[in-house]
Sequence to fold (361 residues):
Amino acid sequence: MFQPTELPILFQKYPYLRKQIAWLPLGQLPTPVHRLTHLGHELGFDSLWIKRDDLSGPLGGGNKVRKLEYLLADARQKGYETLFTVGPKGSNHVRATIEYGKAVGFRCHCLLFDQPQSEFSETNFQHIRMRADKVHTTSSRAAFIARYGQETFIQFTKLHRNRYFLPPGGSSPIGCIGYVNAAFELKAQIDAGVLLEPTLIFVALGTCGTMAGLIVGAKLAGLKSRIIGVRVVDRIVANVWSVARLARKTLKLIRVPLGEMLNRTSHRVKKIKAREIEIWGRDFGRGYAIPTEASLHAIQIMQEYEGIRLESTYTGKTLAGLIHCVKAQGYEKQPILFWNTYGHAGEISNRDQAVVPATAQ
Fold:
């Protein structure tokens, strides 16, 4: 199903990493990047671009495919047979974990909590129900937090020796490697003359892994672009401290085999402080997965002018944030990049799976 591909650019740049970090070729990479000519003209932006991670994989695109290339490889290398992850009922991360996990031979279990319904979330939930080997659901936020704490303890103590735990959004240092490599991928496209180096790069900020990986990768690749996370979840989850901490942990993971080779380059990254992280939170609205008027308008104009589909939980709010932030800071004449992390789902297969309550073991 997955076509052989060349090694990630990060491994080509630093060959020793190939011996330290496992990798599975799941995605269709590199993803294309192109100019949004018509939308840019409509908005009054001179140079608006898009990175098409919505086209990242054969079983559905989105930002999770890049993370799963390393997370599933790590699980396989360590001998696990079952994957366990958590998220809202419409989680693209949970759906992608199940689709790609089962495609490479894993059993897949998940724990879900309620979220506001939309066409996007309902489609993902149906995929999860049909494809997962076991689905646990919770009836309240308190029940979810208790069960999540239990699973974290089980993972830490290794009580389930045959079950690999993927954190929400796949946002661990291992998962972040996918977006460290993505930054090198973007740098190669810039060097090849595909696009100008962006002044600003906008990406959805949820569980922080995508942004943290891009920050580390941009520093190591020598990109000068400012990366701005558009917050789409509560501030307790997505904040400058969480991003900075995850970025430092990711750097620590990839510096181990390189020794002095990365010392000079990585010095700038390991000194990253929370105050250096840029987050735009004005388009979050009333809560997670609750559309805003601006996000719905952003979805509409992207479809109308460029024929590209977005959704209201992540990418619609991210484009709305991009528009407002660029205009507020007066960057209409600068090169701007919208990193499209939209994760579409494919056709649902006909296979019944039972949904069991959270108390089931």
Summary: Residues 173-191 form the longest helix (19 residues).
